[in-house]
Specification:
Blueprint: H1 7-28, H2 31-34, H3 41-46, H4 55-63, H5 67-73, H6 77-89, H7 97-113
Helix pairs in contact: 4-5
Length: 131
């Protein structure tokens, strides 16, 4: 059991509160039209899609129960959220390096594949200008 005074519990509670505030903002305002959410700086500078491009729109659709819209904007968001939830809820304090390495390889591979100009890889890129 985690003590409420442990640094991990404080971090989890703080992260939970910040996530709840972010979820409220994303549920309330559509990221493309609201002007509250900044564009991806990597995409702005390079014209390429980073692994996180479209994640804000995907979170918006996920919060509205639209799994297909969320997957269309960023297919990696759902597995990444599941992985982060698993990290937060697990009892062990340590993480095997192969698990983290595998996740990093998945994210980098996703970032490369979504920028390839051929089908079916073009489906991994977020839709231009929103849905």
């Amino acid at each position: 059991m985690i003590s409420l005074r442990s640094p991990r519990a404080v971090l989890l509670c703080t992260g939970g509160l910040l996530a709840a505030a972010a979820a409220w903002g994303m549920h309330r305002f559509y990221p493309v039209l609201s002007g509250y959410f900044p564009p991806c700086p990597f995409h702005f500078v390079t014209g390429l899609h980073c692994p996180g491009c479209g994640a804000t729109r995907a979170a918006y659709f996920l919060l509205h129960g639209d799994l297909a819209g969320a997957a269309r904007c960023n297919l990696l968001l759902l597995p990444a959220l599941g992985f982060l939830l698993w990290l937060c809820l697990r009892k062990k304090e340590t993480l095997h390096p192969a698990v983290l390495t595998g996740f990093v390889v998945l994210v980098v591979l996703f970032g490369i594949l979504r920028n390839l100009p051929w089908a079916p890889f073009t489906l991994l890129a977020p839709p231009a200008g929103g849905l």
